[in-house]
Amino acid sequence: MPQVRMIAEQVRLLSEQTDRFKTGRISVSMALPMDERMAANSLLIFLLKRSCKEYPDFSLLNGKLDELYGASLSASVSKSGESQVLTLSLTCLDDRFALTDESIVEQCAQLLASMIFSPNCKGGSFGAENLAAEKRLLIQRIEEELNDKRAYAFNRCISLMCSNEAYGRPKYGTVEEIQAVKMADIYAAWKNMLSTAVIQITVVGSSNADDVAKIFEKCFSKIERNPAKTETVFIRRGGHFNRYEEKYPVNQGKLVIGFRAGTQNSRDNLAAVTVMNDIFGMGTYSKLFMNVREKLSLAYYCWSKFIASKGLVLVEGGIDTNKEKKVSAEILSQLSDLRNGKTDPEVLESSKRSLKERHTLTTPESICAWYASQVLEDEILTPENIVEEIEKVTMEQVCEAAKKLSIDTIFMLSATEEGETNED
């Protein structure tokens, strides 16, 4: 079980002490409401990754990372429920393998703290050229996602399904919002993040995390904290479902069906819905894979995803556009069979074995990501906790979880005659 301690208001440090790996990892995850500042927040985390006051340019920062035995730095933006999560992480050599008695983890923690609390910012400016470069790179990321039609269809279904909810907003903000961000917005976003974000510092490695805690405690002692309260809206049932269609010159159509999972929070019936979704459309033994894809050859791919933090289940498939109605009908038929218990009992055991394997975390990065994803949760779940609950799930509970699924939105990205490529 990891150690958890509060080091400031709504700032906790979670440490998993282990000697299983040659490397360690530290991440700082900062959760903020999904509002009009999302574009500025996204640009901010990538600007913070570029440098800090002590290492104000790329060469000096890289030199420091090289001194830390080639430590690697990363930044990311994600959604957790209706919060935007900004994460800055460092992967480094575990202290056991250092050539001296110095603590690499402690030095990495100090570097992360410097980047977050003492950025390369003069007179409220992070540098016009730096901001322009990060705007260009962030817009490029968005365009790359738009060009991946499978990802586009999936995200488009969510945005339509949750158009009246904060979750429907794109995680980076829109291109137009990014282009409109001014330097003053970045500076305000930085000050706001330090004051209002709900924060988790996650440490994985063999060393005791006391020194890491002291570094961040000292930094936060200088900050007046007023953490924002973010509550995710859970809609338990879809109403009259809507269908949307867009056309694009690809050979393979993209069908996405969005369901409400019937849950009222991120932990509600978690194990049963996880197993139900796995049997419905996640594993190679699942109903969607075995029937829609393999037996009936109605789809090039067909699978489902459970988003626990928002209470959504989405089914996506790559199909021939003229087969949309037939595929949709078969997906709903497979869901009906699952609801009515028409499932081989052996599939339940296969699902539990597979889920146990998927919850066996084998790298510092995967352990860190598991715990960092719980930045907004009051109670920390270990992988062992969820596996233990999964083992208890019965087929009756799976059927009941399936019965709570209600269709909300269908999105179809239809192929046109000009299509020239066959995507996976």
Brief overview, please?
The chain has 424 residues and is an alpha+beta fold. It has helices at 38-50, 58-67, 104-117, 128-147, 149-161, 175-180, 183-196, 210-220, 270-282, 287-295, 324-339, 345-358, 364-372, 383-392, 395-403, and strands at residues 3-8, 11-17, 23-33, 72-80, 83-93, 198-205, 242-248, 253-260, 301-307, 312-319, 406-415.
Mean pLDDT: 95
- Spell out the helices and strands N to C: EEEHHEEHHHHHEHEEHHEEHHHHHE
Number of E strands: 11
Radius of gyration: 23 Å
Placed side by side, the strands forming the largest sheet appear as: 1-2-6-3-5-4
Strand content of the residues, in percent? 15-25%
Q: How many angstroms separate the termini?
A: 40 Å
Helix run count: 15
CATH class of the largest domain: Alpha Beta
Notes on the structure:
With 424 residues, the protein is an alpha+beta fold. It has two domains: 3-220, Cytochrome Bc1 Complex, Chain A, domain 1, CATH 3.30.830; 242-415, Cytochrome Bc1 Complex, Chain A, domain 1 (2-Layer Sandwich). 43% of the residues lie in helices and 22% in strands. The chain contains 15 helices and eleven strands. It has helices at residues 38-50, 58-67, 104-117, 128-147, 149-161, 175-180, 183-196, 210-220, 270-282, 287-295, 324-339, 345-358, 364-372, 383-392, 395-403, and strands at 3-8, 11-17, 23-33, 72-80, 83-93, 198-205, 242-248, 253-260, 301-307, 312-319, 406-415. Strands 1-2-6-3-5-4 form a six-stranded mixed beta sheet. Strands 7-11-8-10-9 form a five-stranded mixed beta sheet, with helices on both faces. A hairpin with a 2-residue loop joins β1 (3-8) and β2. α1 packs across α7, α9 crosses α14 (383-392) and α11 (324-339) packs across α15 (395-403). The longest helix has 20 residues, at 128-147.
